[in-house]
Amino acid sequence: MELFGTxxxxxxxxxxLFFSFSKRDTIRYSNMPxxxxxxxxxxxxLQMNGGxxxxxxxxxxxxxxxxxxxxxxxQPVVVLVGFEAVHEALVxxxxxxxxRAEIPVFMKVNEGYGIIFTNxxxxxxxRRFSLSTFRDFxxxxxxxxxxxxxxxxxxxxxxxKNKGHPFDPTFFLSRAVSNIICCIIFGQRFEYHxxxxxxxxxxxxxxxxxxxxxxTQLYNIFPSLIxxxxxxxxxxxxxxxxxxxxxxxxIEKHRETLMADSPRDYIDNFLIRMKQESGNPFTEFxxxxxxxxxxxxxxxxxxxxxxxxxxxLLILIKYPNLQExxxxxxxxxxxxERPPSVEDRKNMPFTEAMIHEIQRFIDLVPLNLAHxxxxxxxxxxxxxxxxxxxxxxxxxxLFDKTHWETPYTFNPRHFLDENDQFKINPAFMPxxxxxxxxxxxxxxxxxxxxxFVTLLQNFSFSSLDDSEKINLSPYASSLVxxxxxxxxxxxxx
Length: 493
Hints:
Number of strands: 9
CATH class: Mainly Alpha
């Protein structure tokens, strides 16, 4: 009888505790933005298109508005749709929305280190240091421009070898782009036929496709799946380990040859800072942050820009008349002798408009990388608690009907005024916005312009088939829009 009484008492206590926590949770999440009613455990997943989640959010927003709460599994997520809502959060209330959500797959791969997927002092210190170091080594300055011009010449030489032979441009472009970030972080470029570089680029290309797989997003919603069904995650993790091993070897070489008064690159600068702060037990300048930062910069600095170039060439062979207009502008402004320079941008409005429209139309990261709130915040009359996951849907900005005349049509006139001069649109947000805007935006913009223009100065590109049949829809779109695999013909000009 005494045992029975103890069990009853324990049940009452547990019930009261559960009620207390449920009530506290209800209060914490009271007056959240509206959204579809979630089911137990799975939330609103049955209403989601796993391959195109951004389209599901757009559909929901027609019912619940531009600020809504969607449950991914048991986690309430605030989703922002349209330019006005995204701009208001990321720019006008930048501090409150500047957190990075904990994305399980990336957290496990990066082990909580580095600049991209961290918060607080770690993120602030590493971002400040990284931006300063990039400026020291020429990001946005003449020296980087010269590196890109030199690399563009190497790229032209490689592409010329394929004249008369249809080829997939994937690794030609990724090798060229990768060499620019390699100059900044490793202090060197690699030959195009370097086996190590080709292997690493293959790993990156594979991981982008795996991470953009809907199944990987299920890991982020139900992290326990990593233990139960680890197949895809193990592939991502093993590829990342090989990249980190390469970076680790590069760091060790730098340690052995470091000269504190003459830093050669990002790694040297970081190692010097590590020595300076070796007596600080709370320093963020340690080996783990260095390893992950360099690996992340190598990955992000290679894949995003090379994917943009690859998608851009696909668009150019689909619309040969637009490609020809770029050729005409290049011949008029630059000619075919001297290399293009960043200074040429201001005299090439159509080319600038084409490049911007390519970036808008391909919608590289449709969902953005998920943010989180850094504190309790009131947003448009709704209460959003601290550490709430926030998804500012970039697709909804780049295709916002109130800011683009023909959002679902490729149209370079989106960036041209009535006098055919280049004009910027505030809804052009491919690099995100606010405090989490891509740290490499300046470098990426310079690379995209110089590589595109140099290629089109020397070549014209055509499709193997009828250009009208080219499919511009992405191969994968769960996280990154990855273009279909294709081949093209190259013709010397």
